[in-house]
Amino acid sequence: MATNEATTSIKKLQVKRFKPDENPEKHYLNEETGIWAWMTTVDHKKIGLMYLASITFFFFIGGMLALLIRTELLTPAQSFIDADVYNQVFTLHGAIMIFFFLIPSVPAVLGNFVLPLQLGAKDVAFPRLNLASYYIYVIGALFTIFAIFTGGVDTGWTFYTPYSATTTGNVMAMTFGVFVLGFSSILTGLNFIVTIHKMRSPGLTWNKLPLNLWGLYATSLIQILATPVLAITLLLLTMERALGIGIFDPNLGGDPVLYQHFFWFYSHPAVYIMIVPGFGIISEVISTFSRKVIFGYWAIALSSLAIAFIGFLVWGHHMFTAGQSSLANMVFSFLTFLVGIPTGIKIFNWLATMYKGSIDLKTPMLYAMVFLFLFTIGGFTGIMLGALSVDVHLHDTYYVVAHFHYVMMGGMVMAFLAGLHYWWPKMFGKMYSEFWGRISCGIIFVGFNMTFLPQFVMGAQGMPRRYFNYIDQFQPFHQFSTVGAYVMGIGFFIMAGYLFHSLRKGKRSGSNPWGSRALEWQTSSPVPLHNFEHTPVIINGPYDYHKPMSEFQLGIATSHNGHDHHGGDHTDVSKTEKEQA
Amino acid sequence: MNRFSEFMLPPQKSTLAEGTDALFHFINITSVILLIGITIAIVYFSWKYRRRSDNDVTPVITHNSKLEITWSVIPLILVMIVFGWGLNGHVNLNTAPDDAYEIRVVAKSWLWEFHYETGFVSVNELHVPANRPVKLVMSSDDVIHSFYIPDFRIKNDVLPNRYSSVWFEAMEPGESIIFCTEYCGMAHSNMMATTFVHTQEDFETWLITAGSADDNMDPVELGEQLVTRNACTTCHSADGTELQGPSYLGIFGSERVMESGETVTVDENYIRESILEPNAKIVEGYQPVMPSYAGSLNDRQIDAIIEYIKTLE
């Protein structure tokens, strides 16, 4: 139906080509300035950048905590922090990286910035809700910081009962912070789903939707369906601690394994909240830098939805040794292997996209290649952990630690960095140093593998996770791993350096430095305040590199009052017709 | 490659280890082969199809059903093999033979108690016979712990509200380490124990003599042995080092301020109470985390510990 409407309006309204202004004087960064304008903005781009600043802050904190952990682990027993501080440090590292960095990273930063642009919309469907979700995120973060300064939390990011119910740390403030944060995630997801359904440009049918949006769509579905379960769990935990109602604590008649079911019912799908939008980015980047039609569009799009769906049914694989029944173990193991298939399909599709392409290994593409390599290792080791008998040996060892860092950091963070470098010119209209970009990507790649490869070995040899002290046998692995972490740290500092330099003194990038066919590149960089000076009209797929650029820059002129939406509005359209006539 | 895969694992010391390891090697080797293939494809494509000019024309290849079905079905077959194999191993791990020798395991923060059929309790030392299936019936006194012997490839969580179990058959006499693998607080990483595998005769001898070995010992010497054997030293040092609990050094006869504000003189009665009812009085600055030793230490042993602490001035 949308297509018919679009074609009729194309006939009626004289679609013409709009070449983006290569050097725009006015754009979203300079039209409204001042701190108040930023804090009250409903512009999805500015909100995206505010999220970017926030998650960068938390990534820095989480990263520093990681270096603290690694430094302490240079020697067995105590080096410079005691066991109690160490336990708080690894708890915070996990909680901050997951709840404050990974979960909001791609949807809230890159999703917010890019999603309306890729739809040709002026903003998300509910701009004020979007701003509200940012502030909810900030409030959640404040509670967490409050918890850190009032006793700390030493439960691990999983808050397992009954330990979390008995420890003296400020678990309540921390869980409340995470509880609040969940609403931010739900609202973002809701906003994205409505926006994708209702605000696509004329001609942008579901089969022309960029794969990044399929990724974000699948992610949003998980966000709104799974996050409430986390909220319920944390609420029950709080009720138990505050009111003494026995739900998880055996002393009160509760069942601690029930908590684990609740927790992983959210936290496993949350893994897909973190990684599925990364798949979207990788599809965009690989197609753009291979100048080639994406291979297996529907396979990639639907596998994201399949992962989102099956991902809800595999939470029990975190509990193979927790005392759940053998039948449950069998079913969860089976479903876990099923979720591996759509993931594998994606890897092969991306490789096939590169086949006979015109590949340019610019920084974003380099990160995408690093992603392919590291995420594949993360996937294979996931198969290892899904195998029931082997998991009994490997569960809760460093093998698991290495596995999820390969998935989360090697997968998600690398995808995020690919996306950040890819859309950086779109965000700021400036280029970063390609040379330093590649150097730091290389350093991070080497450092990452140095850090986590030895952890597979020591984990398989039996080194348990969350250990402050360890037996001497593991020391060489720990030391190698620590050195790797420092190398990785250097890589990230170089990145901070060249990105900061780019903001201040970067060369102008022009509207479309990568020669991409995707819609967001068909407007100026930085983006105009309302994204497009016209209503874009879509006739080609976002990866149709065999068609000339001019076919991707079509649109209908609109008035410049900015706040009306594309299509639909008849008075506006007729006005445009008159203007054109 | 197989040699590296073997290097990754601890020695096989139980009859269950071989099966688990075979699957480990199968997945490892298959994964490495596939990973090398994928990596070669990435590197080869990046070089072979590198951009030569800005006007490069690329072919339109949107999909290929045959290829896509192939790369879906082959991995599916592979993971189903892994699934069945893993399930088979899991069934073995969970089915203890009927004639298995039973030992009760009680986990407390942060020690392991092993209760034998004779009523003898050993702390942080598990003694078992070789070449005979042993079944451990486990429960926790406080939070969740997890019982893990890497050499035997067995692990199971130890829960406060129900029994769980593992079984194994050790293949030859020797020692193997036991870890706690479910995070349980401050001294989680010190909650280690050792499995001593004896021949059947040695095990029987040990079982008979273990309980009576203390009888003729000097109380101070016995006390010193007991604090080590019962894992008191995990949290209490004898040299003034600050651990999770107060050090024994110079504690006897001193006055300590409690969390409740009262001042207590550390005498025989206070130490006895602290062993049997550890959370009755907590010294200021410490947490009520010590498990009770009521039932596992007799009066003579408690006396010996008191005598030992008296000597640490």
Describe this structure in words.
The complex is a heterodimer of chains A (581) and B (313). The two termini of chain A are 28 Å apart. Chain A has a single domain, classed as Cytochrome c oxidase-like, subunit I domain (Cytochrome C Oxidase, Chain A), CATH 1.20.210. In chain A, helix 9 runs antiparallel to helix 10 (297-310) and helix 10 (297-310) runs antiparallel to helix 11 (326-354). Chain A contains 17 helices and three strands. Chain A has helices spanning 2-13, 35-39, 44-72, 83-119, 127-149, 163-166, 171-198, 211-243, 256-290, 297-310, 326-354, 363-386, 388-394, 398-428, 434-460, 475-505, 570-580; strands spanning 16-17, 534-536, 554-557. A three-stranded antiparallel beta sheet of chain A has the order 1-3-2, with no helix packed on it. Chain B has 313 residues and is α+β, with helices and mostly antiparallel strands. In chain B, strand 2 (111-115) and strand 3 (121-123) form a beta hairpin. Chain B is elongated and about 90 Å long. Chains A and B meet through helix 4, helix 9, helix 10, helix 11 and helix 12 of A and helix 2, helix 3, strand 7 and strand 9 of B.
Explain the layout of strands and helices.
The complex is a heterodimer of chains A (581) and B (313).
Chain A: H1 2-13, E1 16-17, H2 35-39, H3 44-72, H4 83-119, H5 127-149, H6 163-166, H7 171-198, H8 211-243, H9 256-290, H10 297-310, H11 326-354, H12 363-386, H13 388-394, H14 398-428, H15 434-460, H16 475-505, E2 534-536, E3 554-557, H17 570-580
Antiparallel strand pairs in A: 1-3, 2-3
Helix pairs in contact in A: 3-4, 3-5, 3-16, 4-7, 4-8, 4-9, 4-14, 5-7, 7-8, 8-9, 8-10, 9-10, 9-11, 9-12, 9-14, 10-11, 11-12, 12-14, 12-15, 14-15, 15-16
Chain B: H1 2-7, H2 17-48, H3 65-94, E1 101-108, E2 111-115, E3 121-123, E4 125-129, E5 134-140, E6 145-149, E7 154-158, E8 164-168, E9 174-180, E10 193-198, H4 200-210, H5 219-229, E11 255-257, E12 263-265, H6 268-276, H7 299-311
Parallel strand pairs in B: 1-5, 4-10
Antiparallel strand pairs in B: 1-2, 2-3, 5-8, 6-7, 6-9, 9-10, 11-12
Helix pairs in contact in B: 2-3, 5-7
